[in-house]
Design a protein that fits this description.
The N and C termini lie far apart (43 Å). With 258 residues, the chain is α/β, with parallel strands linked by helices. The chain is globular. It has 2 domains: 29-120, Ubiquitin-like (UB roll) (Roll), CATH 3.10.20.10; 134-256, Cytidine Deaminase, domain 2, CATH 3.40.140. It has helices spanning 50-60, 90-105, 114-120, 134-144, 149-154, 177-190, 208-217, 230-239, and strands at 5-14, 17-26, 29-35, 38-45, 71-78, 81-87, 158-164, 167-174, 199-202, 221-224, 242-248, 251-256. It has a 6-stranded mixed sheet with strand order 8-7-9-10-11-12, with helices on both faces.
Length: 258
C-alpha cells in the first residue's frame, strides 16, 4: 500500500562540507477524477486515502449529494499520474455535463466574468456549531502533531482532523491542505459520522475555500494553526461558523463566533 512517501538521494551541505545522503519526501502526483468515463478535474495530490478524497471532493463540488451516490470503481495508473474511475447516477452526471457546457459556452470572454466569480464565491450554507470549550481544543492540539505520520516522515504534509471534545477521531494528510480536508470529509461520510457533533483542525491558514468546505460538510467550527484570510472571516460570520486562528502554544484567536 502506498504510504505517500518516496525515497530520494541528495547532497547535504553542512559547515562547508558535503556528503551524499538519502531522504524521505512526500509524494505528489497528478490525480484525475473521471465520472462515468468522462474526465472532470485533475488535482495535484498525495496518492493515499483516494476513496476518501474522491468522496470529499465530489460532495464539496456538489457533484453528488451523498456519499452513497458515488461508487469508486478503480484506480488506473497512467504514465502521467493516476485516474480515479468513479460512477454516479445518470441524473447527477447530466447535471455535471450541463455545468461543463455552461462553462465552455462562456469561454469566449474567459473565465473571469461575474458568473465565474459567482461559482468561485458560492454561497455558504448555515451551520450550527457544536458546544465546545477552549480547553478541549488546546488538549486536541497537543496530540495533533503526533498523529501526523506522513508529515513526521517528510516534513511536507498538511493535515485535517475531526475532533469531538478533546479527542481527535479522524485525521487525514496530503501535500495540499484542501486535499487533506476533502479526504477528511470523505472519511467522515464513509464512516457515517455526523460532522455536526465536532470540529475540525487544519495545519495551515484558514482560507475561504476551507471555510466553504467545512460549512458544506456541516462542520460548525474550524480551527487553524495559522492565520485566517479576510474572506474566510467574512464567510464564517455569514454562515454562523466559529473560526479560530493561530491555535498553537496553548493559545488561539477567535475571529468569528456565535
Amino acid at each position: 500500500m502506498n504510504d505517500g512517501t518516496q525515497r530520494v538521494e541528495l547532497r547535504r551541505w553542512r559547515n562547508g562540507e558535503q556528503g551524499v545522503e538519502r531522504d524521505v519526501v512526500i509524494e505528489e502526483c497528478a490525480i484525475a477524477l473521471s465520472y462515468n468515463g468522462v474526465a472532470h478535474a485533475v488535482m495535484m495530490a498525495t496518492p493515499t486515502d483516494l476513496e476518501d478524497f474522491a468522496i470529499g471532493f465530489s460532495l464539496h463540488e456538489g457533484i453528488v449529494a451523498a456519499a452513497g451516490e458515488l461508487r469508486f470503481i478503480e484506480v488506473a495508473t497512467r504514465e502521467q499520474g493516476l485516474v480515479l474511475e468513479l460512477a454516479i447516477p445518470q441524473m447527477r452526471f447530466d447535471l455535471l455535463a450541463d455545468r461543463r457546457r455552461h462553462l465552455l459556452g462562456n469561454s469566449a470572454c474567459g473565465l473571469c466574468g461575474s458568473e465565474s466569480l459567482q461559482m468561485a464565491m458560492r454561497s455558504l450554507p448555515r451551520v450550527v456549531p457544536a458546544a465546545l470549550g477552549m480547553a478541549d481544543i488546546v488538549a486536541a492540539l497537543q496530540s495533533f502533531a503526533a498523529m501526523q505520520a506522513l508529515n513526521a516522515a517528510t516534513g511536507g504534509a498538511h493535515a485535517a482532523a475531526w475532533c469531538v471534545g478533546s479527542e481527535i477521531s479522524v485525521l487525514r494528510e496530503d501535500v495540499g491542505r484542501h486535499n487533506a480536508f476533502d479526504k477528511l470529509v470523505g472519511a467522515l461520510a464513509r464512516a457515517d459520522l455526523d460532522p455536526r457533533g465536532g470540529y475540525a483542525i487544519v495545519s495551515s491558514r484558514a482560507s475561504y475555500e476551507l471555510v466553504h468546505k467545512a460549512a458544506s460538510a456541516g462542520i460548525g467550527t474550524l480551527v487553524a494553526i495559522s492565520a485566517p484570510t479576510s474572506a474566510a472571516i467574512d464567510g464564517a460570520k455569514r454562515c454562523g461558523l466559529n473560526l479560530i486562528g493561530f491555535a498553537r502554544d496553548g493559545g488561539m484567536n477567535v475571529y468569528a463566533d456565535v
